[in-house]
Design goal:
binds flavin mononucleotide, single chain, Rossmann fold, six-stranded mixed sheet, 177 residues, 33% helix, alpha/beta
């Protein structure tokens, strides 16, 4: 099953986790591509980030390179911020066409405050866009470089890869953005 991973990472934990997921996926012979979400404008102060996130503001995301039409599974990954998911991921979810897409969620967290609420909210938002959420997982940010931990926490996600090698999706297909 080919996999597109759309992720946002501010301090590197989520990025480390998705890089491992990509590697694990490819080791099983399937294709995976990472799409890092970069807001056009970004607040870097903690309070500013919390304020915008808590207000459910969506960041403006550059989606020109984001063609997800030919992927069988889309993984949405983000840190938990202010008890929900990040403005960057919200911006992508709002813009993308997700009807009938198979989706998965991975959120990384610090203290753990609001992690279940964040997961639930992202799932609801994806379902509201017509996606079918087939997996959701939570990872402790400080363990995102620990491959054994990730392998354990995401064991049922890795089972979805299937065994048959899958070719790279046709990039010529219409844009998913
Ligand atoms: C602005 C901000 C708000 C955060 N809010 C929460 C939170 O509500 N709950 C939590 O468990 N962790 C929170 N964290 C911690 C991050 O979720 C955690 O460190 C995460 O792994 C960071 O991922 P990244 O390195 O990919 O950016 C917050 C971090 C930042 C910067």
């Amino acid at each position: 099953m080919n996999l597109a991973i759309l992720f946002y990472s501010f301090s590197g934990n989520t990025k480390a986790a998705v890089e491992y997921i990509k590697k694990g996926w490819e080791e099983k012979g399937s294709f995976c591509r990472l799409f890092q979400l970069k807001p056009r404008k970004e607040t870097t102060s903690f309070l500013g980030q919390c304020f915008r996130t808590a207000r459910r503001q969506a960041a403006e995301i550059e989606l020109a390179d984001l063609d997800i039409t030919s992927y069988e599974l889309i993984l949405f990954a983000s840190p938990v911020w202010a008890l929900t998911y990040t403005p960057a991921l919200r911006g992508a979810v709002e813009k993308l066409k997700l009807k009938d897409k198979k989706a998965a969620i991975v959120l990384t967290y610090g203290s753990g405050a609001g992690k279940e609420r964040a997961r639930k909210e992202l799932q609801q938002d994806l379902e509201a866009k017509g996606a079918k959420v087939v997996f959701s997982g939570l990872l402790r940010g400080r363990n995102c470089c620990d491959r054994d931990y990730i392998k354990r926490e995401l064991a049922s996600f890795f089972k979805m890869v299937g065994n048959a090698p899958v070719a790279q999706p046709d990039r010529a297909q219409a844009s998913g953005a």
